[in-house]
């Protein structure tokens, strides 16, 4: 089955009453825009226009430009002008440009849009992963282990960690990335985490409601009061989004509602960790509150699927977490067949999915979750953009940001066909070519 065309119609998620497609700072450029600093491995951008030609397959994600939901154009070319795409189409119709880049028969794909990561942390949980994969019990504290390490880390250490993982993702073709707080869980530590995140990306999420910290173990209601009160007041200026882990052992439906509604009162747009470990109220709450995305979506009732299909909330699937925990994968086929918009993300975090590879998740989605290669690619690009309510990324059409990468293969199907192989041979972000390989 071909990927569904999400570019128009009643399920269009590209705009709406709370659409903030240019990011919290109101634009698609600027010193903190996107995944890395303006001079990240690029030097000074070329002046004038650049023509990329001899493209075997160009994925535009714009059905008006090419075939199917991916908007595929063969024997293609595109023109970059400054930060943006100026033209895309057949190579024999390409306009003149100031500079020329020969793709040498490779595929060109929109930059991956990663709408779910947890990058502000210290330490790792190698022992936990090793025990899990070896069939041994492990009781060292999970998220709380990372909280302790993060609180003990210096600002410089956390900045370096975020920067390293963003660059790691960028070299693999991820040009837009969201990241969250959630490993501080005190007012000062959550502010610190968000300030660090905001230095690296505009897509910043306040996740003070990740888990209840140990110091509030006997007073979870008190912690919710802190999150919805002084902590939110201090954190809101640094974030665009508010998130909550709605799950047994974390926050129940009533608590999640209070947190998301409080965030909305401070101008933050809602998203939610929902139904990862068990059936629960998270999906229904996400749709009711108009959340941009419900993330995980592993355990779904028919009513949950129906709600997602009828609402604007994107189902963001995170197969790296299932891979790393040996848990059941979400049923992407069920969601797609119901008309739900699906996004993919690696869920990069130190506990349950320590990978930044979107290509790996594309391969997992095809192999384990019932998606076609085209559907998985759309979900990793345009789907991620819709989960962030962005219209400037995830597509390669005139006026969109020039975020793209060359695949060292003639077809995008190679992302699933050659899992684990580093296929990104060149990456552009906002019109600037970045370093990929030495």
Helix and strand arrangement:
Blueprint: E1 49-58, E2 73-81, E3 84-90, E4 99-102, E5 107-110, E6 112-114, H1 126-134, H2 143-152, H3 155-171, E7 174-177, E8 179-180, H4 187-198, E9 204-209, H5 220-235, E10 241-246, H6 253-265, E11 269-270, E12 272-274, H7 282-288, E13 293-296, H8 302-310, E14 314-317, H9 319-325, H10 332-337, E15 342-344, H11 358-368, H12 373-387, E16 404-407, H13 414-417, E17 424-429, E18 432-434
Parallel strand pairs: 1-4, 1-5, 6-7, 8-9, 9-10, 10-11, 10-12, 12-13, 13-14, 14-15
Antiparallel strand pairs: 1-2, 2-3, 5-16, 16-17, 17-18
Helix pairs in contact: 3-4, 4-5, 5-6, 11-12
Give a summary of the structure in a few sentences.
With 438 residues, the chain is of the alpha/beta class.
Structure characterization notes:
This protein is α/β, with parallel strands linked by helices. It has 13 helices and 18 strands. The chain has helices spanning 126-134, 143-152, 155-171, 187-198, 220-235, 253-265, 282-288, 302-310, 319-325, 332-337, 358-368, 373-387, 414-417, and strands spanning 49-58, 73-81, 84-90, 99-102, 107-110, 112-114, 174-177, 179-180, 204-209, 241-246, 269-270, 272-274, 293-296, 314-317, 342-344, 404-407, 424-429, 432-434. Strands 1, 2, 3, 4, 5, 16, 17 and 18 form an 8-stranded mixed sheet that branches. Strands 8, 9, 10, 11, 12, 13, 14 and 15 form an 8-stranded parallel sheet that branches. Strands 6-7 form a two-stranded parallel sheet. Helix 4 packs across helix 5 (220-235). The longest helix is centred in the middle third of the chain and has 17 residues, at 155-171. The two termini are 39 Å apart. Mean pLDDT is 89; it is low at 1-44.
């Amino acid at each position: 089955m071909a990927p569904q065309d999400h570019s128009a119609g009643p399920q269009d998620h590209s705009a709406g009453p709370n659409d903030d497609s240019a990011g919290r700072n109101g634009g698609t450029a600027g010193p903190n825009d996107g995944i890395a600093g303006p001079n990240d491995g690029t030097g000074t951008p070329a002046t004038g226009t650049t023509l990329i030609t001899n493209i075997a397959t160009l994925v535009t994600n714009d059905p008006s430009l090419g075939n199917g939901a991916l908007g595929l154009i063969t024997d293609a070319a595109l023109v970059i002008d400054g930060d943006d795409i100026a033209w895309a189409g057949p190579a024999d119709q390409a306009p003149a440009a100031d500079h020329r880049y020969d793709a040498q028969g490779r595929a060109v794909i929109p930059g991956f849009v990663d709408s779910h990561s947890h990058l502000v942390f210290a330490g790792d949980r190698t022992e936990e992963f090793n025990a899990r994969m070896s069939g041994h019990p492990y009781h060292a504290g999970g998220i709380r282990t990372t909280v302790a390490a993060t609180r003990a880390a210096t600002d410089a250490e956390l900045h370096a960690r975020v920067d390293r993982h963003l660059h790691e993702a960028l070299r693999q073709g991820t040009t837009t990335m969201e990241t969250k707080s959630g490993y501080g869980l005190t007012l000062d530590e959550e502010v610190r985490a968000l300030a660090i995140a905001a230095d690296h990306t505009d897509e910043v999420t306040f996740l003070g409601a990740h888990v209840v910290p140990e110091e509030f173990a006997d007073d979870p209601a008190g912690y919710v009061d802190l999150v919805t009160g002084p902590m939110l007041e201090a954190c809101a200026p640094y974030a665009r989004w508010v998130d909550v882990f709605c799950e047994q052992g974390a926050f129940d439906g009533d608590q999640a509602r209070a947190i998301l509604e409080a965030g909305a009162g401070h101008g933050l747009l809602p998203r939610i960790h929902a139904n990862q470990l068990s059936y629960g109220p998270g999906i229904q709450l996400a749709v009711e509150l108009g959340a941009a995305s419900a993330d995980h979506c592993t355990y779904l009732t028919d009513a949950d699927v129906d709600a997602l299909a009828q609402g604007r909330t994107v189902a963001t699937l995170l197969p790296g977490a299932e891979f790393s925990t040996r848990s059941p994968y979400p049923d992407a086929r069920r969601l797609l067949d119901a008309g739900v918009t699906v996004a993919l993300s690696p869920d990069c975090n130190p506990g349950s999915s320590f990978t930044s590879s979107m290509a790996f998740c594309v391969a997992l989605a095809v192999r384990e979750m019932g998606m076609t290669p085209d559907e998985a690619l759309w979900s990793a690009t345009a789907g991620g953009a819709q989960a962030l309510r962005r219209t400037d990324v995830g597509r390669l059409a005139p006026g969109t940001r020039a975020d793209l990468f060359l695949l060292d293969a003639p077809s995008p199907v190679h992302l699933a066909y050659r899992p684990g192989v580093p296929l990104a041979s060149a990456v552009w972000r906002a019109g600037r070519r970045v370093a990929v390989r030495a």
